[in-house]
Amino acid sequence: MKILVTGTAGFIGFFLVKRLLAEGYDIVGLDNVNDYYDVRLKYARLEQTGISTDELAAGKLIKSTTHPNYRFIKLDLENEPALLRLFEAERFDYVCHLAAQAGVRYSLQNPYAYIQSNVVGFIHLLEMARRFPVKHFVYASTSSVYGLNGRMPLSPHHPADHPISLYAATKKSNEMMAHSYSHLFQIPTTGLRFFTVYGPWGRPDMALFLFTQNILADKPIQVFNRGEMIRDFTYVEDIVEGVKRIIEHPAAANPQWDSKNPDPASSSAPYRIYNIGNNQPVPLMQYIHAIEKAVGKRARMELLPMQPGDVQATHADVSDLEQAVHYKPATSVEEGVRRFVEWYRNFYQV
Q1: Whole-angstrom Cα distance, residue 20 to residue 49?
Q2: How many CB atoms neighbour CB 109 within 10 A?
């Protein structure tokens, strides 16, 4: 089974590749290795999977030095001719699309980057899946699509029509674009709404990284909404276990789907939307206390108002995913944070 995984220099993509390699899949990883955050971290992730960053060149497939069934290509999804050549040559069985311009707050500063990466890049991949049919097209969505929906727990069966950031709007558009291709061309597509993923090798723009960095440096941490936030923090290895199981579980049409009472999570087409979270929401202050315990130092907090584009609470209803693939996250916030801090101290030698 040959899988294209996009975003493999990124946080979740890096862990997913390691998980799939352990299962013996033939994998091509793809990433444009952009400088949204420190590329040295991206290079280090690639090196962990045997991809020599000295050999990186746009459009060139590089063989892993440690995994004979893994190759990597540095490529922009906006580059349709190069993407076409890749699909024509490789004939993938599955696509797992994790690459995206991430970050809620950055979308307020650089909106066009989100359209190019998350919308233009997405349609190029859908077109490749149409021209070179795949058994399953899995892609990352986000809990941010729920936006103004305050009905907890958040369910994929509830409407998600009021995103409050451009990032969320682009991800919601991905779900709609995927549905149209599932309907028109019978491409099985599954969207996974990730809930606040954290863990070792995590992104430097995420709270866990920023809080750990500042606490260790005796700098204050910025705590938005004065700490009155709740998040469904989900450990990265729990996430990738769910993703791996979904890849092997192609979307199918819902035989009970009713056009007069449409279910947003399914369709008469081979289309599915799932939440993928921990289903155990944690107050932000509890999360901060877990970091303090792992670091061994108290945080100095700068309490700030809510930031534009943020939501006050997330809580994932993952019952559909549990029923479909027996998904059951197992890592506590305290344990996950401890593993991150251990990695951070080792990686940055602090």
Answers
A1: 12
A2: 8
DSSP letter at 63? E
List pLDDT tens digits, range 242-288. 999 999 999 999 999 999 999 999 999 999 999 999 999 999 999 99
Whether 47 contacts 70, CB under 8 Å: no
Q: pLDDT tens across 37-71, in order? A: 999 999 999 999 999 998 888 889 999 999 999 99
DSSP state of 154: B
Residue with tokens 């919601």: 172
Average pLDDT, the chain: 95
3-state DSSP: the chain helix, strand, coil percent, rounded to 5? Answer: 40, 15, 40
The phi and psi torsions of 285 (rounded to 5 degrees) equal -65, -35
Three-state DSSP at 29 gives strand
Closest to 154 in 3D by CA, of 344, 298, 319: 319
- The residues assigned a catalytic role are 167
Compute the distance between CA of residue 280 and CA of residue 262 in angstroms, rounded to an integer.
28
